Amino acid sequence: MGSRMANEISKTDLDLDREPIALGEPAPRCSLQARVVWGERVVTIGGDAPVRVQSMTNTDTEDVIGTAIQVKELAIAGSELVRITVNTPEAAAAVPAIREQLDRMGIDVPLVGDFHYNGHRLLTDFPEMAQALSKYRINPGNVGKGDKKDRQFAMMVEAAVKHDKAIRIGVNWGSLDQELLARLMDENQRRARPWEARQVMYEALIQSVLESAAAAVELGMNPAQIIPSCKVSGVQDLIAVYRALRPRCDYPLHLGLTEAGMGTKGTVASAAALSVLLQQGIGDTIRVSLTPQPGEARIQEVVVALEILQALGLRSFVPSVTACPGCGRTTSTTFQELAKQIDDFLRAQMPVWRVRYPGVETMKVAVMGCIVNGPGESKHADIGISLPGTGEAPAAPVFIDGEKALTLRGEGIATEFQAIVEQYIERRYGAAAAHA
């Protein structure tokens, strides 16, 4: 066995014509490009635009100040569009005031109106609200039934055309068009080999969104301004639906598990589903629909969305900190404390640094706990430190741009390393900004 493996390795080494291993990177995306606009702020979705992040408030929209504050928090955290519920005349009347408050605070993030059941009436009766929003979310499953459905859907699309707004046709399997589903179930029974019920559900989701999009185009909607979504709460279901949807249209697509859950469950489920699709080039805008833990900030779902995109190499938002998980060689907690301190520091500074130091979001920092992988990982980072493990000499070499630059010792290693990181950022990214 050993001899045969050695021969195979030898042959492999001599095969100089072997094709290189493909680079690990997401497949290219291909779709029309939507433009969601407020004032001079234009958020492009699809085409050659980066995958966008959006979120939604959980405040009562009638609370103008509370809603405006939460929108601001979500926007600062990185949400490029923020959706708000518009469910009552009072909520509709509050939207222009919310927009005005945001503009006063210098927050130009586009607002998306989330409409269900009575959106046709609210968009007609409150034209100032229709104008203050930058995009409308329409759910084909609850815009009425029979003839009313067509009329009410048409009223919402006509409002979007009149005010030059993008729309999201958001189908959700929790509120799927039951008439369509019943028809497809009946048709399925006439097949020689009927599909499973879940497969019919997939088809109903896709047909609902595509038929609604086609109807919107007939009503004068620019196809590039239509962003479909087919949301479900199961990871494999979401992957299956979007894999089937993408070849059947060229609209920019919105991704997200609906009701993903809270905490670790919701985070892992969203990351699993979205990562598979994004890696395959499917999806142009995402939302991570987390149920906040008691007392947890709403912005956590934005943080998770940003981390998904950054982990896949699709976008960079904040310098990444590589840190080892720890083992028996790292009985000290110093590397854990320093890694958290550096990560918190970098995130806290990003609102300022993003403007002052263009490109700093791509920086890589390593905080390692012992000699096994510490020096190697530190060399691969832009700047890294290898802290001493159990039984190692009490010294921490610092590597800058792949080369050992100095060694830190003593009780002030954490403070000294943070200062070195700040100096590195100023030297590298401040200089770049000065010459821009």
Automatic annotation (TrEMBL):
Residues binding [4Fe-4S] cluster: 324, 327, 370, 377
Keyword Oxidoreductase: yes
Catalysis performed (reactions): (2E)-4-hydroxy-3-methylbut-2-enyl diphosphate + oxidized [flavodoxin] + H2O + 2 H(+) = 2-C-methyl-D-erythritol 2,4-cyclic diphosphate + reduced [flavodoxin]
Ranges for domain IspG TIM-barrel: 43-305
GO MF terms, alphabetically ordered: 4-hydroxy-3-methylbut-2-en-1-yl diphosphate synthase activity (ferredoxin)
Top-level taxon of the source organism: Bacteria
EC numbers for this chain: 1.17.7.3
Pathway(s) of this molecule: Isoprenoid biosynthesis; isopentenyl diphosphate biosynthesis via DXP pathway; isopentenyl diphosphate from 1-deoxy-D-xylulose 5-phosphate: step 5/6
Keywords: 4Fe-4S, Iron, Iron-sulfur, Isoprene biosynthesis, Metal-binding, Oxidoreductase
Domain IspG C-terminal, residue spans: 321-422
InterPro entries in the cross-refs: Dihydropteroate_synth-like_sf (IPR011005), IspG_bac (IPR016425), IspG_bac-typ (IPR004588), IspG_C (IPR058579), IspG_TIM (IPR058578), NO2/SO3_Rdtase_4Fe4S_sf (IPR045854)
Cofactor note: Binds 1 [4Fe-4S] cluster.
Entry cofactors: [4Fe-4S] cluster
EC top class named in words: oxidoreductase
PANTHER family: 4-HYDROXY-3-METHYLBUT-2-EN-1-YL DIPHOSPHATE SYNTHASE (PTHR30454), 4-HYDROXY-3-METHYLBUT-2-EN-1-YL DIPHOSPHATE SYNTHASE (FERREDOXIN), CHLOROPLASTIC (PTHR30454:SF0)
Family designation: Belongs to the IspG family.
Its biological purpose: Converts 2C-methyl-D-erythritol 2,4-cyclodiphosphate (ME-2,4cPP) into 1-hydroxy-2-methyl-2-(E)-butenyl 4-diphosphate.
Record protein name field: 4-hydroxy-3-methylbut-2-en-1-yl diphosphate synthase (flavodoxin)
Taxonomy of the source species: Bacteria, Pseudomonadati, Pseudomonadota, Betaproteobacteria, Burkholderiales
